[in-house]
Specification:
317 residues, two-stranded parallel ribbon, elongated
Length: 317
């Protein structure tokens, strides 16, 4: 029995010791848990303090910027106040000058200046009207002259040209149209002229579509038409090698056209035709139409010097 009682007491002693250890461990755990909680609280507070310090730095930086801006604004204000004072003093000085100035006759002077300005404005408006009228008159004159030239060109071509592939030719002007006449303000115009040929209802540019003889004949006819329209009082008409590249029929017709021009100009006392050519047959054709009796022959003598002598057309016979 004593042995059994000792065993029971030993068990109880072990249980008591175990319970004491558990209690001590529990106490230590609670103590450590409280310490951890305190440390965490300190950490949170430390983070809060750090955040406040950082925010305080931003505030300090903003404060410095604001202070710098304020200083700049104060400087500008002081500068503006100084300029304002200068202007105010100047205004006061001008006011004193006005008060002390002699204004006698100022209204008459003002009226005189106003009259001069209005006169200049009216004169400028009148000149603008005259400019427009002159511009329209020049365009109308241009259209009239182009019509007159083309009429002469058509007549000369139809009486001179012996071919049947071209009815007549004319000068076309890109500026001679309704839009040019309707321009609201005078402006510099570029006149683009070109020679066109008509066959029936077709109208084509002559450039690149005609022979060398047709080109020469067109040049001669256009020059004759220009002389008829613009140089009637200028009696000199000069033609240099007019029969170049012309066939026999067109040479004959050209001589007939020149004869008609000479006969029409006989009443003009200062008319003179200067014809330079190597074509003796052409000279003979002109002589046969009884429009000239002699010509001047340019030749070289035995020494190589150029000589000029007058010869009668009868020498061709």
């Amino acid at each position: 029995k004593l042995e059994g009682s000792d065993a029971s007491d030993a068990d109880k002693s072990l249980q008591f010791e175990q319970m004491m250890r558990n209690m001590n461990d529990n106490l230590r755990y609670r103590k450590l848990a409280k310490q951890i909680s305190d440390i965490e609280s300190q950490i949170v507070k430390a983070r809060s303090d750090i955040k406040e310090v950082e925010e305080g730095r931003h505030v300090e930086e903003d404060y410095r910027k604001t202070l710098s801006l304020l200083n700049n604004l104060n400087s500008q204000r002081m500068s503006t106040e100084g300029k304002s004072q200068v202007f105010q003093h100047r205004l006061e000085a001008l006011g004193e000058d006005i008060k002390s100035a002699d204004l006698k006759g100022s209204h008459k002077a003002y009226n005189r200046v106003v009259i001069d300005v209005k006169t200049v404005e009216l004169a400028s408006a009148d000149l603008e009207k005259y400019h427009r009228a002159l511009d329209h008159a020049l365009m109308a004159y241009h259209t009239m002259k182009m019509s007159e030239i083309n009429k002469t060109v058509k007549e000369l071509w139809q009486t001179t040209y012996q071919g049947s592939d071209i009815d007549y030719i004319e000068i076309a002007s890109d500026a001679d149209n309704a839009e040019s006449m309707k321009l609201s303000a005078p402006a510099k115009r570029n006149y683009n002229y070109r020679v066109v040929m008509r066959r029936g209802d077709a109208l084509l540019d002559m450039r690149g579509r005609c022979s060398a003889g047709q080109k020469v004949l067109a040049c001669l006819i256009i020059r004759l038409a220009l002389a008829e329209s613009f140089a009637f009082d200028c009696g000199i008409l000069a033609l240099d090698e007019p029969t170049t590249n012309l066939d026999q029929r067109n040479i004959e017709r050209l001589s007939a056209s020149l004869a008609d021009i000479i006969n029409n100009r006989r009443r003009q006392s200062n008319f003179q035709l200067i014809l330079i050519t190597h074509d003796e047959q052409f000279i003979e054709l002109l002589g046969s139409r009884e429009i000239c009796d002699s010509y001047y022959l340019v030749y070289k003598d035995m020494d190589g010097f150029s000589r000029v002598k007058q010869q009668e057309l009868i020498s061709f016979a």
